[in-house]
Amino acid sequence: MTTITPDIIKDHGLTPDEYERIKSHMGREPNLLELGIFSVMWSEHCSYKSSRRHLAKLPTKAAHVICGPGENAGVIDIGDGPDGVKLAAIFKMESHNHPSFIEPYQGAATGVGGIMRDVFTMGARPVANMNALRFGAIDHPKTRHLLSGVVAGIGGYGNCMGVPTVGGETNFDAGYNGNILVNAMCVGLAEQHRIFYSAAKGAGNPVVYVGAKTGRDGIHGATMASAEFDDASEEKRPTVQVGDPFTEKLLLEACLELMGEDAIIAIQDMGAAGLTSSSVEMAAKGGGGFDMDLDKVPQRETGMTAYEMMLSESQERMLMVIKPEAEAKAKAIFDKWGLDFAVIGHTTDTGRLVIRHLGDIQADMPVPPLADDAPNYDRPYTELAKPEPLADPRVTIQEALITLTAEKSAEEMGTLAEALIDEKLSGMASVEAAGWSATHGKAELYVRLDANAGADAIADLTKAAENLAETGMVAEASADLNTQEVSLADQPGGDTMLVALANLLGTPDLCSRSWIWSQYDHTVMGDTVVPPGGNAAVVRVHDTTKALAISTDVTPRYCKAAPHEGGKQAVAETWRNLCAAGAEPLAITNCLNFGNPQRPEIMAQFVGCIEGMAEACEALSYPVISGNVSLYNETNGQAIPPTPAIGGVGLIEHVQHTARNDTANAGDTLVALGITRGWLGQSLYMRDLFGIEDGAPPAVDLKAERETGEFIRKIIQDGLPTAVTDVSDGGLLVAAAEMAMGAGLGLMLTTPVKERRAAYWFGEDQGRYLVSVPTDAADNLILKASMAGIQATKLGMFGGEDIVLDDEEMIGLIDLVDIHQGTLPALMTPNKETAPMPMAQEDIKSMILEALPDAEVEIEDLAGDGDHYKARIISAAFNGKSRVAQHQLVYKALKGKMGGELHALALETVAKQ
Amino acid sequence: MKSCVIVFPASNCDRDAAVALEQATGQKPDMVWHGETSLPDTDFILLPGGFSYGDYLRSGAMAGRSPIMQDVVKKAEDGVPVLGICNGFQVLTETGLLPGALMRNAGLEFICGMQTLQVANTQSRFTRGLSDRAFVDFPVAHHDGNYTADQETLNRLEGENLVAFRYVTNPNGSSRNIAGILNEKGNVLGLMPHPERVISPLLGGEDGTAFFATALKEFG
Question: Torsion-angle region of residue A366: left (phi > 0), alpha (psi -120 to 50) or beta?
Fold first, then answer.
């Protein structure tokens, strides 16, 4: 027998104090198996020993809560289904961070598999998967590998299960370089009279193992998930489990079939800590004991020890206690689905866990201390300083004006200007941007210089212009420097507002996620009403007129700057997303991802976020019904930003009252609801365009939040808005642009303020929505809003093919869509070759006809150079599609055949009626 | 009319297919378990999407050799209409009822999204109800949808007008943009896109409603 040494205790993640406690519970020295069982049950992952006392602060009750935290998943009442059967929504979110960092495909896949098991264990058919993903900086060497692996893994598992992955969120931040977050959420539907719990009440009932066989995979996964990482973490790859979605699909169907019979007393999935945690938790909740013979466990490998079997995290397994008389019936169902079914023991009234193997008793230990008397630490935490609001930053911008004169046509002057930019200016480090205009005899070049560019730079420019003059190509050349200081609240440095918008829409955090969600089957089950890409995802409750709205949110940079405010905001943002879909928010689940709780500053983040969440849940009557805590998310002492991911679920009573963000019509007026003060602290505008990460995050006024959300739901039910979105990352202009891109419509905007215009458009004040309404109903909406005490501001009107701001600047919607949708694919396949290739007019025509055989095509060579064409295409394929969608159809059809320079083809598309 | 849906252990579009068939015929289809050896009396057989037996080997390979498929092949040869959608199309190529194979997508990734399809054959019994529209929008959701066959087969399919649907914007590298093909007799159709997912304006479209309504009327 192995002697328990201090090293063995340490390797099991236990402290000397904890070991002493174990000895006193046992009344003797534990053996290695018993120590292993204690170590996983007392791991942070299973025992919540650092978090329990703080989790207790979260509100968990409401009239519609059927089952709160503590079971495999939480349960809420969603009213009557077909034939008056009472329905429930069952959901939970869980982390699979550490395994996904080590082996992204399997880590993410088994995370999805695990959360689905949690949901169907309770009697629910999973109907929607969601996720919340955080990766390191997009240019970090590991990020592409991790992102593509995680996305493929989530898809690989969910797609095979036939459960749609309907949405989620993804952020990129260097704070996750060494520790990504993969949080998976699953929502299921059950009939209220068929909900199953894990309390194994009664003695002498068979303990049944079903599903996949047990192997040596994932041993000590829960302990790994409760420790920090270092550079050697990849050596932990053997602790990652391998998923088999086919077996899980069989397990799902078999369990649901058995649940239709009167057979199950208790059921629990074997997730983290496998057979150990499932048996201990079932016995503890039932107030009894388990006596199990491991020789009866279906095994994939030979020669496994009791220790290995009890700590294995092989996937796709369930433990059940069934009624003795139902055994034959239950076995027949699992036989039909081709799954193992083994009675491995029975329940007892001794309160002890007895493990037999090879004819001997290998462990005999008291159940209650394993589950309920685990350590409960009050970890110290520091008081965090409250950040000050960000004072509007000022920057110096330096612009140079180069004037060229010569007795030449405007076109020739333009060519000269372009040549100067291409040959010289674009190669200068201090030049940030350059543009030109030309008239007969004169060209002007506008050059924006780096704020730090000094006299040298202007001397260089002057020299370049003079060199040009010396060639005799121009008569005179001069360069003038103009320096001015601007407030970033007034204007985006030297850029115009719409250029800043385009830049933001091309950042990793704000670009389209379609590269991700197009790898998830999001329409299987035939109930997806709002697919990924909108606000909340919406799935219909099958065979009813109801629908569920689901949203996952958190803004880690807010949580890092001010944990309490950040915790509040995360809850409020899901609430807002659900309201924007027209849903009544009912409850949340969460996944609380933090660093090492033994560090007081991390513990302070944790406590702050929880207390902020609690305040928001209380104020919004929005209880927590399930959740998961993931601590020790750090590598080499570098903790992740605090990330309490929230998953909110709401109910839409009549699915036709679902609001979307992409359904504005031409001629609709855009109205902002809520107060915009232009809060720039912690905004993406500041962080991603100017590298400023200072200041307090925006505060959430929970009373106003609630009033505005209720107002939004009311007007959606009244059928007033044609489209609705909440306003979050990036502020009003980003939200407005997303509505425009979604609808495939341009937008004419007017800035309603004279000062701090950029802050108005890019500030991230909370509690705001944008709605589109038919213009003749806009005043009615504003009147209703003001009667409800909610500020409503007209911002513009939908129509055309450009976004136009204050009649001063414009950007083509299609260009914006290209930036928004092209960013992630380009980042993920950076070496894609794009070879521009001049083409003959006839070739273009025949390629269009190949894709659209019904088309009438006219092609015009714009510049006479065989490189710039305009095509007018009339086809029935365009019917019912927006202009943007029509153009994308043509561009995609020609992709790969025309090289990269598709923009040399100007399009006019016409639907054939 | 009586229709049926074949259910493999990891079929996952079986319910969706049943909903679409019931909507079109007014009658619930029979759900036929893969382990059965004979089909019930039926006027229309649907092989739904999913992963049949996990598809770890080759999509549809094991399903093509499952007990029930022997009777499906026999009925197809007798002229009973058979529609294979997605995994069902893969299974049909594995049984030899349709030529060619569905290889891994050219981009190597699973793809899910709406596709505009050209109705390439407007004469077949499956598709002539769509002759008033040149295009339909059906979603795809697959990892192995890259239709591949030798040049001779492709020429024959085109020459005999057996290509039923083509992608406008080829998402998966399929030869000659092929999204769906017919057998010579015109009673077997395999297609990668999912018409059963667009049977309500609420779910993003109704082109599937038109497809099922007209096809089932033809065969009814």
Answer: beta
Catalytic residue among A12, A54, A64, A96: A96
Kindly determine whether residue B54 and residue A853, on different chains, have CB atoms separated by under 8 Å. no
A877·B112 Cβ contact <8 A: no
3-class SS at A235?
helix
The total of other beta-carbon atoms located within 10 Å of residue A870's CB is 14
Q: What is the 3-state secondary structure (H, E, C) of A826-839?
A: HHHCCCCCCCCCCC
B14 CA: distance to closest CA in chain A (Å): 9
Active site (catalytic) residues of B: 86, 194, 196
CB of A519 less than 8 A from some CB of B: yes
A45 a catalytic residue: yes
Contacts of B56 in chain A (CB under 8 A): 246
* Residue of A670, A692, A675, A674 whose CA lies nearest to A683: A692
Burial class (CB in 10 A: 0-12, 13-18, 19+), A559: buried
Nearest to A715 by CA among A767, A772, A650: A772
Whole-angstrom distance, CA of residue A229 vs CA of residue A176: 12
What string of DSSP letters covers A617-655? HHHTT--EEEEEEE---EETTEEPPPEEEEEEEEEESSG
Is residue A138 less than 8 Å (CB to CB) from chain B? no
Q: Which of the four pLDDT bands, split at 50, 70 and 90, describes residue A354?
A: very high
CB-closest option in A161, A518, A877 to B116? A877
pLDDT beyond 90 at A800: yes
Q: Which residues in chain B are contacts of A162 at CB distance < 8 A?
A: 10-13, 50
Q: What does the angle CA B115 – CA B116 – CA B120 come to, to the nearest 5 degrees?
A: 125
Distance CA B38, CA A121 (A): 34
Which alpha helices (DSSP H) does A394-481 contain, by range?
Answer: 410-423, 455-470
For A454, residues 6+ apart whose C-beta sits below 8 A from its C-beta are none
Domains in chain B, ordered, with CATH?
3-219 (3.40.50.880)
- The reported pLDDT for the residue numbered A833 is 52
Q: Which residue of B has its CA nearest to A160?
A: B51
The pLDDT score that the predictor gives to residue A231 is 65
Residue A417, exposed/middle/buried by CB under 10 A (0-12, 13-18, 19+)? Answer: buried
Asked if A553 and A573 touch (Cβ cutoff 8 Å), the reply is yes
Q: Is residue A847 within 8 Å of residue A865, measured between CB atoms? A: no
User: How close, in Å, is residue A789 to chain B by CA atoms?
Assistant: 34
Distance between CA A96 and CA B210 in Å, rounded? 43
Cβ-defined contact of B203 to A161 (cutoff 8 Å): no
d(CA B143, CA B50): 11
- pLDDT value at residue A785: 97
Confidence of residue A338 (pLDDT cuts 50, 70, 90): very high
Of B12, B133, B199, the CB nearest to A524: B12
Helix, strand or coil for residue A201? coil
**Phi, psi at A162, each rounded to 5°:** 75, 30
Q: What is the pLDDT of residues A422-464, one digit of tens each?
A: 888 888 878 888 888 889 999 888 888 887 777 777 788 778 7
Residues A240 and B195: their CA atoms lie apart, in Å, by: 39
Interface test with A, best of B116, B175, B177 (most A CBs within 10 A): B116
A773 φ, ψ (degrees, to nearest 5): -135, 150
Partners of residue A852 in chain B, C-beta under 8 Å: 118, 168
Cβ contact A563:A595 at 8 Å: no
Residues A56-81 pLDDT 10s: 999 999 999 999 999 999 999 999 99
Residue in A409, A416, A459 with CA at minimum distance from that of residue A436 = A416
How many other CB atoms sit within 10 Å of the CB of residue A872?
Answer: 15
